[in-house]
Structures are given as C-alpha cells and as structure tokens.
Amino acid sequence: MSQDIRQLQPTALWNKFADLNAVPRPSKKEERVIAFMKEFGENLGLETLVDKVGNVIIKKPATPGMENRTTVVMQSHLDMVHQKNNDTEFDFNTQGIDMYVDGDWVKAKGTTLGADNGLGVATIMAILESNDIEHPAIEALFTIDEETGMTGAMGLKGGLLSGGILLNLDTEEDDEIGVGCAGGIDVTAKRNYEEEETPEFKIGYEIKVKGLKGGHSGMQIHEGLGNANKIMNRLLFDGFEHFGLRISEIDGGGLRNAIPRESKAIVAIDAVKEQQFLSEINQLAEAIKLEFKTTEPDLTIEILKTETPKHIMDLGVQEGFTRAVYAAVNGVYRMSADMPDLVETSNNIARVLVKNGNIEVGCLTRSSVESAKTDLANTLRATFELTGCEVEFSGEYPGWQPNMDSKILKVMVPIYERLNGEKPHVAACHAGLECGILGQNYPDMDMISFGPNIKGAHSPDERAQISSVQKYWTFVLEVLKNIPSEK
C-alpha cells in the first residue's frame, strides 16, 4: 500500500482509511473487520459492543461544554463491494486493498477501492480517536452487510441507541445533503432444463462482452451505461434467429448492485453457416459498439472459435429464455414526478448464469415508491414466469421518505453555504441507504446523509477525490460543533 495515502490531508482520516483497507472485509464475511473495530473501540477505552448480528457500536462522551447537546449517531457500513478486472490477480479474502494517489484522486490497482463506505467509517474512527475535536455525545454505529442485503441494519434492535440525530456518511457527492432514498427488492428467476447432445454438424464459439465501465446500479442507472447481460442477449438472440445458434453456457455479471461489466457465452452453430454467422455477428457487434461509443468507449465484443460443447440448451427453453431476457426491463423504468432529475423506479439485470441444465437470472429492483417497486417486480415476475421460470422475491428493504422539516437539515444547509459560498443540493437518491431500515426501530430519529465525492463505486474504477475529502471533513467538524441542544 502506498505510504503517500497516509500523508494526505486530513491525515487523521486518511490514516484510518489506510488501516481499514488493510483488513479484508467482503460482505457476509466481516468477521475480521468486526474484530478490528471492536479492538479499536476497546483500545480507546470507550464503551464498545457487538450486537447479535455483528453491528459494532462505540460510544464516546461529549467534549467539555457540549454535554447538553443532542446525542448524535454517526453511521457507516463496514463491508465493501468486491469487484476486480479480469486481468487483476487479487484475493479479496486475504489481501488488503492496494491504493495509490493519481493527481487529485485515490484509486486502487485493478479493484474496487472501498471508499464506499470506508471513508465514512474512517471519518468516524478519526473523531472517536481525537482529543481536540468538539462534539456532542457520539454513538458510532458500524453496520455489516449493507452491500448484499442490509442485514446489519435490519437486525439492529431498538433500544441500543439513544441518539436523536443520525448522520449517515454514505453519500457520494460532496454538494449533496441526502434526505431520502429508494427501497429495493431482489427478483430471482430460476428453472431447470434438459440438456441435448450437440449435433455433429455444429461447431463451438465463445462470445465475450467486456470492457464496460460497470458501476452502481442505483446511483448510475440513469447514465446510459451498457449492461453486459443485455448486450450478450442481443448477440445470442440474433444468432439464434438467423443461424440456429444454440446456447451451452452463459456466465454474465455478478453482484446484484453492480451494473454488469462482463459476460461470456459458449455456443454452437451450424458449421456450414460459419462465415455467414461471423459476418452477421461482427456487424451487429460493431453496431452495438457504435451505439455505446460515448458512454462505453472501451466496450469489446470478441467472437472466438473454441472446442465444440458437448451439450446445448433445450431448443424450446432457449427460445423462451432469450425472449424473456430481451423483454425484461433494465435501466430506468420511471422518473420521479415530485423531485426533478430523480430516478423513481429502475431495474438492474445483474446476473445471468446458464450451466448444467440450470438457469438463474438475478435482478435488483429499486424504487422510492413502494407500490411502484412492487409493480416493476411483478412485471419481471410475469415476464419470466411466461417462460416456465419460478420467480422468488427476497432481500426487500424499505425506502427512506424525505423529511424537509428536519431540524438537522436546517442546521446543515446554512453551514454548507457559509463554508462553500453556494447552496447544497438537498435531494433523495436512487441508492439503498440504511436510513429507511434504521428508522423502523428508531422512528423519532432525525436522519441525514452526506459524504465526499466518490466516482465509479462498485467497480474497479472506484476513486475518491482528495480535495473533496478535505471539503467534507471541514463540513463534518462544523456540523458536530453546531448540533442543537436537547429539549
């Protein structure tokens, strides 16, 4: 890890981020980072507890003169999205993140950086460790498994926290103060099929879609980025329609909250149609790359001859499957009628896996309107059930309804204006924040979300802006100084 990171300002925050990023912390495998955080709190002599699901809570008394202020819950999640480039050798289960400085940005070498939400965690750690930062009583809440189900927030019981204000440090634009977010639900379609032996007159090809940017399936769903699963399906559908292409295997995408960057398929085509197939599919590939030339300049589509697969998908199942993936909604479904430029409802076809007689398609559907979320989930369900799939809904979490009368919002807006000479963007976001879930057991808590500029979250292009972290840190300290008194 570059020592340059530890020299950045504010050094207290960047040093804690470096410490944190040395600890492997994949979602659902947070044992090491939980132990790390527990030891951190105990070594400071602060009240530290780990709840039944693994959330860590560290409590620090107010600094002198701030005892009558409202207790503040500072909250971030411990886990991070694990994504890497195909040519990057890296084991997220054993290695710390390899970071470096590139101008005004901190980046990772071929992997996600973990700034989401590691910078929030590091902020809280730096404040807990400080001896010279003014603040009211703090309850630091470090949740687990935010990225793959929010089970930490869901499992947090009422009564563990007494704070009246919650500062969620998981927003990725430094000029934004978040007051609401979308809810989500996982939609998973599955079915079995009979494999057929590949006829002798067919030959094998491998199709690869790669080089896409990927990114956050909520915050970046409106940017027109390519979805590798949808692009692959276009190629397969065309090959089937014109050249009798038969599918043997597909492996596309990965994490439910990441826009798929890559997909690979093994197919069989009629040997006598090989040249026609290559001409047609390469023309289609060039047309697709032309469509995405602005948003996805590095998109690559490879069609490579390979060993003929022994088995292919049942013809009827393949026909229904490719039509279902074509018909399934991907991207923005509806924009908000109440908040300008806010995506209300969307879907990400995150994972497509076809192998050994099994199909699985995984989607993450988001909406800030619960009824719209259900509507789109049912649309997807109907699409896949028409092809014989069984569809399961899971991992549902609620949105966070905006409160424009928030007392802490009224404190933070003028502070931001005074520090930066401009108004902040007060908005809801199309990502899943934990505030909506936490509010179920703490309904009277006044919540807000903010953070520094983080670009490319959930992808190996993830990067954190150094100057923005400095701006954000100053804002955090001023907010803590001006927390209102308890009444």
UniProtKB/TrEMBL annotation:
Query: Which Pfam families does the UniProt entry name for this protein?
Result: M20_dimer, Peptidase_M20
Domain (Peptidase M20 dimerisation): give its ranges. 208-293
**Entry-linked InterPro entries:** Peptidase_M20, Peptidase_M20_dimer, Peptidase_M20C
The record's SUPFAM superfamilies line, in alphabetical order, gives:
Zn-dependent exopeptidases (SSF53187)
User: Any keyword Flavoprotein?
Assistant: no
The UniProt keyword set, sorted, is: Hydrolase
| Membrane spanning residue stretches | none
Keyword Hydrolase appears in the UniProt entry: yes
> Under which name does UniProt file this protein?
Aminoacyl-histidine dipeptidase
Q: Report the source organism.
A: Tamlana crocina
